[in-house]
Amino acid sequence: MNSKRSLQGMEIRKIGSNRGRPRLWIEGAVASRACFLPGMKISVTLDEEKCMLTLEANESGERVVSKKTVRDRDVPVVDINSENLLGIFVRMGLTAVRLVVQLHRIFVLPIASEVRAKERLDRLKSKLENNEPLLMGSFSSGIGILDRAAHTGFEEAGIRTRLAVANEIRLDCIEHAVERNPVFDGQTILLTAPMQEVVFDNWVMSQLPKLDGLAIGIPCSGASNAGRTKRKLEFPESHPDVGHLVVPFLAAVAQTSPSFVAIECVPGWLNTASAAIARSMLRDLGYVVHETVLNAADWNMLEHRERMCIIAVTQGIEFSFDLVDRPERRARRLGEIMEAVALDDKCWSPLTYLKEKQLRDEAAGKGFKMTIVNEDSPKVPTLNKTLHKRQSTGTFFQHPENPDLLRIPTLVEHARCKGVWEDMVEGVTQTFGHETCGQAVSVPPFVSVFNALGRALQAFKQATSISFSSFVRADMVAA
């Protein structure tokens, strides 16, 4: 590298106004690092195609570096007050620009996050207009239930998608997804490793395509009430395994530059420091953040699971959770989804040890108790990933003839309670099936969300133009 042309500095500076024309005032450290000295001649060149203004020391230059005196010291000043030179930035809606400094040269450019936002919108619009599949990325994929919900919702809205990248730490989940989940195909890049190992592996990330959308189910072990209680966590981020994963997630967003991002987790995650960091960082990366809590009861699901949902869209895409459709409410009975289990099947049990434990817990003033439901029950409690363990706080189906006999839900019944596709739980063990379903979203609410997002993308496709929309905060800009 030629050291004379190496990077000397970078600064974000506000575009001002003087006499009705845009004004860029460059003084102090930026001008000094470029070795622009008072009285030196410089040329100013505008490259509209690159959206770049170049200030360069030039003996035949038409401008002269001026000065002002600060504490008996002459400080170099470059004052550009021109519609012809700066109007291109103003017409883009920019209120600030990026100054990149080399020796004897200063480049004036849009802020990098603005450039990325414009690039991803251009890419998105081109794909939508040409009916090309949008490339989706998935982190903490599990067996891809959220990914399949996204694909289904988009498909209903007339948007083609393809799962380009999937990251999951568990090999068994990835292998099952490849075998059973139709959104995983032969071209899906499988990243079976901790998210942080993937995201901070420069070579791996350099091999990934730019994504159009990214979905993640943030692991909830730290943010859930049960997880915090079990580990006696002072705050969710102190969970040693998953409390820090907002960091690699945001790094993944920055590096793959998707046009939209979807996040799901337990509702309590919205009140964590991780969520606050995610909101601010996504904003600074050029996204508008929308958030809500989805209750599966609004989609007539038997399991009334609540899940928070964040949809972050690049500025220029108009989205609102008001666009999400819900079905007409109707009463449900558990018998609608129950499998025909033989009355003498060995899965039926009196579970005497759990009943005795419940009596001891009640006597000790503890709140642990089983939930017993039958075919007439209008709903079931949240079915979690440890359902297969037959715990004292578990959910059990009651025998239709002998009320003393109980069983846990079958894998198919668990899937039906969440709206999960039954083919995704075929041929697996109870442990694996209940774990993966227990950590999954209720599918219909998320299909509706992605359908609404798909319709928002269709509306974006019809927009006549794309422009920058500056989102730079005052504390990011040099005075």
TrEMBL record:
<protein>
    <submittedName>
        <fullName>Modification methylase BspRI</fullName>
        <ecNumber>2.1.1.37</ecNumber>
    </submittedName>
</protein>
<dbReference type="GO" id="GO:0009307">
    <property type="term" value="P:DNA restriction-modification system"/>
</dbReference>
<dbReference type="InterPro" id="IPR001525">
    <property type="entry name" value="C5_MeTfrase"/>
</dbReference>
<keyword id="KW-0949">S-adenosyl-L-methionine</keyword>
<dbReference type="Pfam" id="PF00145">
    <property type="entry name" value="DNA_methylase"/>
</dbReference>
<feature type="active site">
    <location>
        <position position="220"/>
    </location>
</feature>
<keyword id="KW-0489">Methyltransferase</keyword>
<comment type="similarity">
    <text>Belongs to the class I-like SAM-binding methyltransferase superfamily. C5-methyltransferase family.</text>
</comment>
<dbReference type="InterPro" id="IPR029063">
    <property type="entry name" value="SAM-dependent_MTases_sf"/>
</dbReference>
<dbReference type="GO" id="GO:0003886">
    <property type="term" value="F:DNA (cytosine-5-)-methyltransferase activity"/>
</dbReference>
<keyword id="KW-0680">Restriction system</keyword>
<keyword id="KW-0808">Transferase</keyword>
<dbReference type="GO" id="GO:0032259">
    <property type="term" value="P:methylation"/>
</dbReference>
